[in-house]
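Thread: adenosine-5'-diphosphate complex, take 2
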Amino acid sequence: MKLSLRGVGKSYPGRRGETSALLPFDMDVREGEFISLVGPSGCGKSTLLHIVAGLAPATTGTVDLDGERVLGPGAEIGLMFQQQTLFPWLSVRENVRFPLTLARARARGGERDGQAAARVDDLLRLVGLWDFRDSLPAELSGGMQQRAALARALVGRPEVLLMDEPFGALDAQTREDMQELLLHLIQHHRITTLFVTHDVDEALLLSDRVVVFSERPGRVLASLDVTFARQARSSELKLDEAFLHQKREILALLRGRARTAAQRDRLLFGLTNTPSKGGS
Ligand code: ADP
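Output below.
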């Protein structure tokens, strides 16, 4: 297994006692598998990504990547979030290169400058930002900024990509373009991916498997293999009977669990505004 989670759970301490965010659960992820995590806001999806990334400790349980315990962040894991996380004072090229510069400063990269520069430039071409390599993030559209963030997540040649609603703030057309680009890149590099989304269509279009969580404290309600062939996936597929069948199945699970009308709407229509943390 690429990733093995065993008994992973999380509670946060608070003034009124502990908040249980995620109930202990097991999950195995195969090499190259694309898994979407869906569930009501506040059910612990971001918490789970932070634990897998080694950015936050689990309260219980362990995460192993290629049989090695994850104890802190490392280059083998690439991260991408919904909000803009580029450094505003660095050019697009410098932003994409940043993780390599950091690794080198920590003397963990050991890569020659020429090789690093070539990979940065390859990625800039792949994500369609070559002509904007010297621009600052503020000079780019939202979609272009997320392309740069995607290139930066991939530049360290991660084994695993963790994405937290990365296209949630984009308009529908840009979002479709980004989905296509992402599929192309991860299939090409066979990267194992955990992808958090509110959008069931997006989950079904991209994933090998969709894991559905309950409302907080999150527990796994279902883990569904996506049954139709990925080659056939496109916006037309949204009318396909097999697609609709799986979509209904996931929505029924979510509908049964979403507590408020607002949560239900977000789940059903994939609306992008995520309420503030703790507001579930
Ligand atoms: P999701 O990504 O599914 O919306 P989160 O993982 O962000 O959910 O949050 C799960 C629960 O944990 C929420 O109730 C949230 O309020 C709580 N939580 C998240 N981060 C913290 C934190 N740093 N301190 C305290 N509680 C937190």
